[in-house]
Amino acid sequence: MKSIEKLENIENKNVILRLDLNVPIKNDKIIDTNRIDKIIPTLNFLVKKKAKVIIISHIGRPHGKIVKELSLKPVSLCIKDKIKRDVILLKENIFNLNKKDIFKNSSDGVVLLENIRFYPEEEANDDKFSEKLASLGDIYVNDAFSCSHRDHASVTKITNHIPSYSGIQINTEVNALKKITTEIKKPVTCIIGGSKISSKINIIKNLIPKFNNIIIVGAMANNIFKYQGLKIGKSIYENNIGRIIQEIFNYAEKYECNIYFPKDVKVGKKLNDKSIEKEFREIEDDDMILDVGSKTLVEIKKIIDNSSTLLWNGPLGYFENSNFSSGSLEVAKYIANRGDKIFSVVGGGDTVSVVNSLNINSKFNFVSTAGGAFLEYIEGKVLPGIKALN
């Protein structure tokens, strides 16, 4: 990928900047600015170079219709506050915009197009729409790694019509993930959670030949417990999953990768219940497994101590209830305190939320804002947005 940082003369050039500003908004207020914070270096770089910046982004899934609640207005105000200059939100229909008129009301040279997903042509990857977008600028920059698994007009097709570059943030994401997937310093460990093991089977299989340890946690682990005949009460699990679990264990044995799963757990009768630690033999029919137990945490910490590289995707329990968040929080703090003894990468919305809640982002080597793109990259898939820049 050609990096925007290598460009010399972009003064007064119209730079179309694709960002992922899909932040959580409640009552017109942004709850978490993490995704916005990450792209400020790219914005500041372009402003310093005196480029004219046209930001393209989206919020939510309006399915090609104008949805007032999904306007980017709160985002424009937030960016304005962070870069200390006006950010004009352009609500005009993109098909009516012209390159020469786009900055006529913006002396500070930063405009934000209204939610790009208000246009059905975006998700349809319409070539004429992407050509229209490209006509507004001189240069295109993709700094939205977390959208780069989407084959959308403002992510892929636009690169057919305009000189295209990668942004500072996307370069950082790809370089961090390369150290996890191709430039690995061993021993390397993956902590992986989530609700469905079937949805992450390809990720696990892709990692097994490269990783020394894979620790399966969260609701995914319930499937292994049930497969092994352990009591799981009324915990969620998937049906007809035995073949997949056996496949994982056979594959791990072939490549000498250790598969770990919780040895004890914390349960409740319902999601908002108090936490009780139990051995599997003690689990009752109306118990739900919602976190890992203390013996499991001791084992995970020993594995982390003996690792040089660590990838973490998926919390260890139902962290939305503080009574079942201790496993995730304790592991987050333990990894953070390893400092430069371990190269650590965290990805996925829920896992990032755990790290954010402790305000320890800076103690990890990289915290990815991406969810689907992060997982597809480590699964070994070629991301359309990355391919389009190559």
Share of helical residues: 25-40%
What would the CATH topology of the largest domain be?
A: Rossmann fold
* Morphology: elongated
Briefly note the structural class of the backbone. alpha/beta
Question: What is the succession of H and E elements?
Answer: EEEHEHEEHHEEHEHEHHEEEEHEHEHEHH
The largest sheet has its strands arranged as: 5-6-4-1-7-8
For this structure, what is the CATH homologous superfamily of the largest domain?
A: Phosphoglycerate kinase, N-terminal domain
Largest sheet: 6 strands, parallel
Unreliable sequence segments: none
The CATH class label of the largest domain is Alpha Beta
- CATH arch. level architecture of the largest domain: 3-Layer(aba) Sandwich
pLDDT averaged residue by residue: 93
The share of residues in extended strands comes to: 15-25%
Looking at how many chains there are and whether they match, the oligomeric state comes to single chain
Query: What's the gyration radius in Å?
Result: 23 Å
The total of helices stands at: 13
Q: Please, how many domains? A: 2
Number of strands: 17
How many angstroms does the end-to-end distance come to? Answer: 5 Å
